[in-house]
Design a protein that fits this description.
This protein has 20 helices and 12 strands. It is an alpha/beta fold. The chain has 2 domains: 2-311, ABC transporter type 1, transmembrane domain (ABC transporter transmembrane region fold, Up-down Bundle), CATH 1.20.1560; 333-551, Rossmann fold (3-Layer(aba) Sandwich). It has a 6-stranded mixed β-sheet with strand order 6-9-10-3-11-12. Strands 2-1-4-5 form a 4-stranded antiparallel β-sheet, with no helix packed on it. Strands 7-8 form a two-stranded antiparallel ribbon. The radius of gyration is 36 Å and the shape is elongated. The model is unreliable at 585-602 (pLDDT under 50).
Length: 602
């Protein structure tokens, strides 16, 4: 919690006002028993009605002043706590946005959601309590002890014994409860993770009839959290009866001892009444502090978790002295002896990868699952940084470029199409907010999305659900491709972005891309070899190593891994048809694009 105190700086004037008002509030509360003692000793005992009325009216005005201060303190405390939570939530979100995939893997998405919501909510609740009671209760308790000692020094030992008992109970209970509070937020994380996993994968769960299994997993996470919450709450509930017992025993002791002192003439009735009220104020002050302490341990854990996020420095960030590419507007991508290993991993995913992708050419990557294709692509937009070697764009290492300049050059289509809640129009122009209707329509046409978009009732204003759950996988991918096309970048990155479309659409889509963006650098990760048959350069990966590089015809002669992939996916007729067309195209110097794929689709 203390690490987050610096974020209270914008609210220092309101905090100063709260402190001043709390001081006035405490003084009014401490003055009331004194006025009561005067009314009893000088008004009731001496039967002076005038004194009773005058002192009573003064007492009412003091009480009214205290009530006004209490209302204003509550108002300011709520404003400060809500504003403080809002600022921390905004800073946490901004920090998470700057995280690379390394930080996301370290914290986990479920934990980051919990830290941004539940943890900050805990901090906000405790902040209100701190501003209202933690300042008020100690001042009230200390002042009440001094006042009571002035009233009846001979009975101060009763108050001291009550306070010592209260402190002992609080220390004992919290020594047991604190470890449970520390475990509580981790269990919230776990429940959030299980819930998110079930809701995200509900279709798969139903398809495999695993509802009961997942229900058991959720029930276990829910029960673990419930058990710890019940333990802590039962422990804290025990405190209230003890407090009330001490409260009543103290009152009984004050009356018992005070009555004997009154009988011997060593104490006035009004002073005993005032002492009793001061005793109750002391006990109430400790009761308030104990209530705050019930929430502080959990909030301190939450504060530490939020501070951990805020203090985490992203491993990937803008360089201190960024360099702009000299050959701006070309889009040459070069890998120089690139090796990469995930944080904490002993083995490299990529080893000494080198190639050059030029504008006007299509460079494709193929290999078995786990060969490092997507990892390689992720190094270009700096989702991860290389372990060794360099990734260059127009001759500049991507680590020396501003992130904004780097992203401005890229049109990235991820392996899993991601759409946002909104409309077809808003999703296509997500990366180019000022794109015109003509540009949006052109991008949709190139991505082969026009056909299904025009069939929608509201066409480009048709709603898209969160995550694109109301469109098919192929439609989602085509809208993702349109989103990259409308941005008109220098470099297009397609991370297996054609896998969900049929062969015919695949061929038409690539033909349109070839015609419309033939001057751009195109990088394609593919599982289907038919997608990359006409690529200008095919890079074959096997266990992170480049085992082949060249065109399809060349690789069919020189690369055993590529030959194996080709023979596993294409029939002998398709292979011979492509070889024949390739030979004919070389003789006529007129490329015969996509013919084998279209024939295969038929």
């Amino acid at each position: 919690m203390l690490k987050l105190a610096k974020y209270l700086k914008p609210y220092w004037l309101q905090i100063v006002a709260i402190i001043a008002l709390v001081y006035v509030q405490v003084q009014t509360d401490l003055a009331l028993p004194d006025y009561m003692a005067r009314i009893v000793n000088q008004g009731i005992v001496l039967k002076d009605n005038t004194y009773i009325w005058n002192t009573g009216i003064t007492m009412l005005l003091v009480a009214l002043l205290g009530a006004v201060c209490t209302v204003i303190v509550s108002y300011f405390a709520s404003r400060v706590a809500v504003g403080f939570a809002k600022d921390i939530r905004a800073k946490t979100f901004t920090k998470v946005e700057s995280f690379s995939l390394v930080e996301f893997n370290r914290f986990s998405t479920a934990s980051l959601i919990t830290r941004s919501t539940n943890d900050i909510q805990q901090i906000q609740m405790v902040m209100v309590m701190i501003l209202r009671f933690v300042l008020y209760a100690p001042i009230l308790g200390f002042g009440a002890i001094l006042k009571a000692n002035q009233m009846a020094p001979s009975m101060t030992w009763i108050m001291g014994l009550a306070v010592a008992t209260l402190v002992s109970i609080i220390v004992l209970l919290f020594s047991i409860a604190l470890p449970k509070f520390q475990a509580l937020q981790k269990l919230v994380d776990k429940l959030n993770l299980v819930t998110r996993q079930i809701l995200t994968g509900i279709r798969v769960i139903r398809a495999f009839d695993r509802e009961q299994v997942e229900a058991v997993n959720f029930d276990k996470a829910n029960r673990d959290l419930t058990d710890v919450n019940l333990f802590v709450n039962r422990l804290m509930v025990v405190m209230q009866p003890f407090m009330m017992l001490i409260f009543n025993v103290t009152a009984l002791a004050v009356i018992w001892v005070g009555s004997h002192l009154i009988n011997t003439g060593n104490l006035q009735i009004g002073d005993m009444v005032a002492f009793l009220q001061y005793s109750m104020q002391v006990i109430m002050a400790f009761l308030m502090i104990s209530i705050v302490f019930i929430m502080v341990p959990r909030a301190s854990v939450s504060g530490a978790r939020v501070a951990e996020v805020l203090e985490s420095e992203p491993t990937i960030k803008n360089p201190t002295s960024p360099i702009k590419s000299v050959a701006a507007g070309t889009g040459v991508v070069e890998f120089k002896d690139v090796s990469f290993a995930y944080p904490g991993a002993k083995m490299s995913v990529l080893c000494n990868v080198s190639f050059v992708a030029k504008p006007g050419e299509t460079t494709a990557f193929i290999g078995s699952t786990g060969s490092g294709k997507s990892t390689l692509i992720n190094l270009i937009p700096r989702f991860y940084d290389v372990t060794e070697g360099q990734v260059l764009i127009d001759g500049v290492d991507v680590r020396q470029m501003n992130m904004e300049d780097l992203y401005a050059k890229l049109g990235y289509v991820p392996q899993k199409g991601v759409l946002f809640s909104g409309t077809v129009d808003s999703n296509i122009k997500y990366g180019a907010p000022h794109a015109s209707d003509e540009q949006i329509a052109k991008a949709a046409r190139i991505a082969q999305a026009t056909e299904f978009v025009e069939q929608l009732e509201d066409k480009y204003t048709a709603p898209i659900a969160q995550g694109g759950t109301n469109v098919s996988g192929g439609q989602k991918q085509r809208l993702s491709i349109a989103r990259a096309v409308v941005r008109d970048p220098e470099i297009f990155i397609f991370d297996d972005s054609f896998s969900a479309v049929d062969f015919k659409t695949d061929a038409a889509l690539r033909a349109a891309l070839k015609a419309e963006i033939n001057h751009k650098t195109v990088l394609i990760v593919a599982q289907r070899i038919s997608t990359i048959l006409d690529a200008d350069q095919i890079v074959v990966l096997n266990e992170g190593n480049v085992v082949g590089k060249g065109r399809h015809a060349d690789l069919m002669k020189t690369c055993p891994v590529y030959q194996e992939i080709a023979r596993s996916q294409l029939s002998e007729k398709e292979l011979s048809t492509y070889a024949e067309n390739h030979t004919q195209s070389q003789a006529n110097t007129t490329p015969l694009q996509f013919k084998p794929i279209l024939e295969g689709a038929k």
